[in-house]
Amino acid sequence: MESDAILLRSFRVMAYCGVLDEEQARRQPFEINAEVTADLRAAGQSDDLDDTINYGILGEKIQELVENSRFTLLEYFAQQVADLLLVDDKAIQVTVEILKLRPPMAQDLAASGVRITRSRG
Fold this sequence. Notes:
Helix content: 25-40%
Radius of gyration: 16 Å
Structural class: alpha+beta
Strand order of the largest sheet: 3-1-2-4-5
CATH architecture: 2-Layer Sandwich
CATH class: Alpha Beta
Distance between the termini: 20 Å
Number of strands: 5
Mean pLDDT: 95
């Protein structure tokens, strides 16, 4: 079976997300990775932006979500991004990974995160 996807990698955002008061008091750095599964054959043949999913628009929508939201859990953050990406009728399935860079822990941890996969319907 063929598998086509639009990829967003290392999309850096500053967001409010966390359980601790300090995490809700200031924006923190996050990295978002997303894979949007879709049938891209028409775009591959036509070279027409209307036949694909515009990753520029996806980025704008994610940025808008982050700027206008507060999240407690990474799981909820990832679900909101997944729901947003599935709005496009061409999207069949999405995988979203949210990494919290430099989480507030005593241990030396570069990032913590979640990955979810959601399908249309």
